[in-house]
Amino acid sequence: MMKMILIKETHCTVMDLLPNAQYELWVTATNTTGISPASEKALYMTVPSPPVIKQRECTSCPEAALIRWESGNTNPVDSYTVELNEMGTDGTQSGITESVVAVPTCQCLIQLKTGRRYLISVRAVNIGGPSDRSEVLSVSTTGTFFYLLEDTAHPCLSISEDGFTIFYGDEELPISAMALDDNTFARCVAVLGDLIPVRGRHYWEVEVDDGTEFRIGVAYEDTERNSYLGANSTSWCMRHILTPSRHKYEFLHNGWSPDLRITVNPVRIGVALDYERGTLSFFNVDLEQHLHTFHCHFRNYVHPCFSLDNPGALTIHNAIEAPEYAFI
């Protein structure tokens, strides 16, 4: 579509151009005799729209953060720039902005300092220049932080608005509501967490109650969706079972558990994953008591996993500093 602007000056500001779009501009002169031939055409590219950070898909740990975003533009852009500013202990910005440039896709894994807070934003870049900044995302490297992967959740599971509590109701869903895809847990009422792909130490806690049967642990991304957590070679979990006489706890991998008895029912359980040592440990947080440790050389990155075996709820606490006893 061609747009014509009539002016008397030798300069002009063209408004209302689309972002991340290429335009041809040329000029003609007009007097009482008529219109001159057109000038040479100039090509101009408008800068892109700012990207949109996908907050629910961003994860972090004490050493790094994985930032994901949407382009915000219909047409492809050349690259992206991620900008980060470290916050001081008094809550003020450092004044120094670091940039990660020429990022080709809509995600970036950034190495960070432990125990700090950062403000992170993203710009889209094309030949016309950089876009405005996206909205700012605040990232803490005090501990491991993740959201749940809702597309993996069994249809009977509900997830709270803040994304950290899961519920299993006692009402039966109609068959029409039980539509499953290949990524959804079909047998185990479970969901995976989106742990950052960094081989270091990760720690989170899970709050439970005595009346809820649960499984918590880790699993590979491709763990069988038609199997129970801990019943296969791709998942490791702590399981709580209610029996008529006592509370029973199992630490399951490949369907096998050591014969252990826990005398004090934990209501807040710490989970410590150490890739380098190849360990997955569980703790009673209130007593600072070690419960069990799996020893395994994890061949791939794992995801936190959470399952409810009867109606109830559990709450995940992350972005917290690991206690000293978790990685002794």
From TrEMBL:
Alphabetical UniProt keywords = Coiled coil
SMART domains the UniProt entry points to: SPRY
Q: Where is the B30.2/SPRY domain?
A: 126-325
Q: Which domain of life is it from?
A: Eukaryota
Q: Does the keyword Acyltransferase apply?
A: no
Residue ranges occupied by any Fibronectin type-III domain in the UniProt entry: 47-144
Q: Where does this protein come from, organism-wise? A: Sparus aurata
Quote the InterPro entries the UniProt record gives: B30.2/SPRY (IPR001870), B30.2/SPRY_sf (IPR043136), Butyrophylin_SPRY (IPR003879), ConA-like_dom_sf (IPR013320), E3_ligase_FN3/SPRY (IPR050617), FN3_dom (IPR003961), FN3_sf (IPR036116), Ig-like_fold (IPR013783)
The gene from which this protein is expressed is FSD2
Cross-referenced Pfam families: fn3, SPRY
UniProt name for this protein: Fibronectin type III and SPRY domain containing 2
